[in-house]
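Subgroup meeting minutes
Present: P.N., E.W., G.H.
Scribe: E.W.

1. P.N. recapped why we're keeping a running log of single-chain structure predictions: easier to compare across weeks, and new members can see raw inputs and outputs side by side.
2. G.H. added today's entry (250 aa).
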Amino acid sequence: MSENMNRNKNAFANGVRDGIPIALGYFAVAFSLGIVAKKAGLNPFQGFLSSMLNHASAGEYAEFTVILADAPYMEMAFVILVTNIRYLLMSCALSQKFDPSTSFPHRLLVGFGITDEIFGISIGRVGKLNPYYNYGAMAIALPSWAFGTAMGIVAGNVLPASVVSALSVALYGMFVAIIIPASKKDRIVGGVVIVSFLASFAVSRIPLFDRMSDSMKISLLTVVIAGIAAILFPVKEEEKGSKEAAGYDA
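Output recorded in log:
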């Protein structure tokens, strides 16, 4: 019992450590979203609550845009579902990292806190994923996201748009820092990343996909590219076993 508690404690601490740079990037991006939320008529508390329940920049931007347009609740629910649909895929992928004995409440809580960046650091862990690692990352990253939105609403339009735009670059730099190490370790992963970049650029230029949301494009590309990569480069059973031999992730 004590050993299990220590393992969970270490996993939580590692999650907090890895979540710090994510939290810094989130605050900057959420700050700019807060300015949009202010235009939509939200007060700081409403913006904070919105960000604690919706952890995606695209989803929140769509939410605030719908509010600004005074659209009905059903339309808002549909728009947010479409813009955030890629997290269904991430949840399915991350569920494969859990030990089979992981309880449903743990799976549910981890699923609630999935974001692009938290998914990135979680899926990259060696061995089975300890839910407390995600709790640690969530504990530092999600409140920062929510506080950033609230502070953006407070600041309003005081800061120049150029300053807010410059702060937003931090998030993209952080995401690149997540995928580069994995690409350097495995040439196949690196190749898939390059193909993903090229395919994403190509789709953004094809008029046929103009009416499709960014999240839907990402979801479609993820399924297609990941499926093709899985068929062409399947993970051998002995290789998979060696990776899982590290045991429960701490």
